[in-house]
Amino acid sequence: MSRPTAKKRAPAKSAAKPKVAVARRAVSRIQRKAAPAKPKRAATKSVVGAPARRTFTRGMDAGKTGRRLTAIPTNAAAINTQIRKYGKNVVARSRYLALNNPYAAMAKEAYVSALVGSGIKPSPLIKDSAIREELNRVWRLSTDEMDADNLSDFYGMQATIASEMFEAGECFVRFRSRRREDGLIVPMQLQLLPSEMLDTGHNEVLPTGGRIECGIEFSPIGARVAYWFYRQHPGEYDAAVMGNREKTRVPAEEVMHLFRPVRAGQIRGIPHTLAGMVTLAMLDLYDDAELERKRVAALFGAFVTRDGVSDEENPFAGTAESDVDGGDFSLEPGAVVDLSPGQDIKFAEPADVGATYEPFQYRALLRAAAGFGTTYADMTGDLRMTSYGSIRAGLVGFRRRIEAQQHHVMIFQFCRVVWKLWFETAVLNAVFKTFTATLYVADPLKYRDVKWITPKWEWIDPLKDRQAEKLAVDSGFKSRSDVIEAEGYDPEEVDARIKADQDRAAGLGITFIQLSSSIVVAPDDGDSFGTDQADIAPAAPGVTVDE
Questions:
Q1: Using one digit for the tens of pLDDT, what is the confidence trace for 356-385?
Q2: If 0-12 CB within 10 Å is exposed, 13-18 middle and 19+ buried, where does residue 27 land?
């Protein structure tokens, strides 16, 4: 009798599996029927060049690469990389526009006059009146000797720096130490260097671990170490200078680099005309073409035509002009011209620019002014569509932008550094007599503390501004010193001069009449900026105003 083997039992087990599988499939069908049906996904239309399956999730439209944004680049090039690549061409074109285009030249003058005006002046804050008076006197005398080129004073150099910043976006100032025998009150001077003197293409890695980027040498930790200037301007056309590309290394302690950084990590400046340069350049070309078209069209006044007259029948054919009376005639006022039989005259009718010329010019100049950072009125001198409120609102915004550059660039990067260098040089050379170098070293900030006063702003209606300032002072919201400094003067100097005038007038027996009321009504002179009834301030108690 044979015993069963494992192979004979296997079919019994395998026969049970199909039953389990069938049962599981039956349960799955029952569950699928009981479950709610899922909604079918809507079919999407295929787009040429796009994937078949598309998601409809909303995102940042500005980050997509659709048809509308193909003209806007998406590369993330660093600002310094762009300066190295395009900086030289941008500066050259900016200088050309500022020199040749009248709108760009006017915008530069407006920017310079607003940024520095007659000069950003220091006001020492030391309490000792004798020391303060000596500081003011020595500084006033030193400002005439600071320019190494002897072309202007310290405040004129500020205007040149502002002009360079507008055209090239930056300016370099080199500190020049002088000998005592040079005869200067304070033996130091300043040398202005344009942007082209520092080569943006000078880039290399140094063996010390540092680097030279755009002509500026940096330490391994990123601190500025030196500047590599050309010995001569690379744009000079003298044959003897064209081959001179030698550079000199100037320590960073002797150089002030003035520019307005617009991005973090920026090491060189960019012209203030950059955003509006293309617009104004294209508009300049269009204006030149339009002017030339009108000039050529104006050359043709009239044309004489002949009907079927050959050279044989023309009595003037083959005859010199000097021998013929009436061969050529000019159009003169009131002239009567007799034409030969068969001749007709037709006057030229050149095409006009049309009614869209002025609106187009206005919008294009608005765009250029916005790119230059100036107001439309300052850049063009056009005040036709300007009212008191609009021009004042525009000047308020322009003033805020200029004040930021005054304090962030001119004062912080230039005036503050010059004051420190001048002060220390004067102390080392024993220029001051009211205090010694020992006292200065013990507390340098006490003697060197200074406040810089920016030029005053002229408003449209000074009467209203005076009334507002006086109301703020009388109410305790503002001090007299703030008002005087806003006008570009030193409060202590103003008070001293007022006291001197009063003492002199008292000694001469002169009495000045002062109005008891501070309210003054300006008459309407009929101008566009005249004072209307809404602009008249209410009269003070006891004061009658005649209407």
A1: 888 899 999 999 999 999 999 889 988 887
A2: exposed
